[in-house]
Amino acid sequence: MIRTRFAPSPTGKLHVGGARTALFNYLFTKHHDGINVLRIEDTDKNRSTKESEKKLIKQLKWMGLDWDEGPDIGGPYGPYRQSERTELYKEYAEKLVEMDAAYYCYCTDEELEEKREKAKKEGKPPIYDGHCRNLTDEQIEKYKDEGRKPVIRFKVDKNKKYSFSDNIHGNIEIEEGGVGDFVLLRSDGLPVYNFAVVIDDHLMKITHVLRGDDHLYNTLRQVMIYDTFGWERPNFAHLSMILAPDKSKLSKRAGVKNTYVKEFKEDGYLTEALINFLALLGWSPDGEREILSKEEMIQEFTLDRVSPSAAVFDVKKLKWMNGKYIRNIDDKKYYELIRPFVDEYYYYENEMKFKKAADLIRDSIDTLSDSKEELKGILKNKDGEYDLEYSKKIREKFDEYNGKEIIEEFLKLLKKRDEKYIDLREVYKELQNRVDAGGKALFRSLRIPVLGKEHGFDMVELFSSIEREEIIRRCENFIC
């Protein structure tokens, strides 16, 4: 049976790169009816807390992802937090020492820095020189007497060329002598990443490792450990980087507003839209389709359709996709999702008023947070006022359309009526008979005093969403 794992460090925020890795693991595992494991890599005590772990899990669940084993639900191969597995790492590191495949290294940080500087000056790669590989008993006792606490280093066979096959990038190899003896266990007893993941993946019977391609060359160190123990290597698939639109590293510095899942949620992106978009960053389904349900993605997801080329994070495409999902969900879910965004800034007297306003803007928004701007002039703010602004440019446009004459006639018609909300279609017919103006001038002259802009919502829906008395008030104030 296929077994995969997503193994994040719980720093509290889930980056979109990590989110895509979690998604690809989920889709691949579900496609093969396998087991997906959530493992928390929390050996960095300064950055990892239980609270940040809870936040991470909450964000994964918001994305609609689940797992079959993990720290929150348990499983047969736990514990699922690295901080609770330290004795295992110590046990296997000491086994390697017994096998003469690793050794205790007593070099201090200062000595290691000197070695690196010397190697640089000599034009050599700054790799460990193996000083502690063959210490005598006397040297070891001397270091112990000095109070030095050793690390455990892996003995790299410098005469061997190491390689592995990657499901996305093909064969990856490193020349003889390209890697120095690397640390397995630090002096405080905590494992380094490359050692811990091998022990965990082996003991948890992980068959496929899907992760970012920034780990490609880490994997060469890991296969050394697998081979030394005589363990079967898992299948590796390293996912390409996600780049900003300018092809630089994805970051706020590159002009990308949101880079964490929590930020997309807060900005009003729908779960379905975000996972649809992330799935297409490096993977492509059969055909030209871009809108896919989670079920369709599970059915079609295979590694042979994952590209080794870097994917570009196209924010415009994500917004377009999110807008599609907003317009396609059922009304009940739409009202439920947009209500918190409306409630944050606006006041409405009753449910009908809320639904009228939400319906009015639905075709105009790409994210739920767009409602803040789109509802100006439609609903009152928390102070009971309408947020309306009329720029100098918009007033000049109004004058170009000879708008004052149109509005004066429009007001006469409105004041003859007594309904709370008007049917613009009826009033418009009468207005056409009273003024000498084309449709463009008429519509824009009506819209500008009411909303402060030339373009926007369907006029009939707009005028049926604002009370007649309020429309009269705005028009009178605008032309006075």
Task: Sum up the overall morphology in one term.
Answer: elongated
For the secondary structure, the number of strands is 13
- Tell me the radius of gyration: 32 Å
Could you say what the CATH architecture of the largest domain is?
Answer: 3-Layer(aba) Sandwich
Structural class: mainly alpha
- Spatial ordering of strands, largest sheet: 3-4-7
The CATH topology name of the largest domain reads Rossmann fold
Number of domains: 4
Helix content: 40-55%
In short:
The protein has 480 residues and is mainly alpha-helical.
Give a verbal description of the structure:
46% of the residues lie in helices and 10% in strands. It is built from 20 helices and 13 strands. It has a three-stranded antiparallel sheet with strand order 3-4-7. The protein has a two-stranded parallel ribbon with strand order 1-2. Strand 5 (162-166) and strand 6 form a beta hairpin. Helix 6 crosses helix 7 (216-229) and helix 16 packs across helix 18 (439-451). The N and C termini lie far apart (77 Å). The mean pLDDT is 93. It is found in: Cytoplasm.
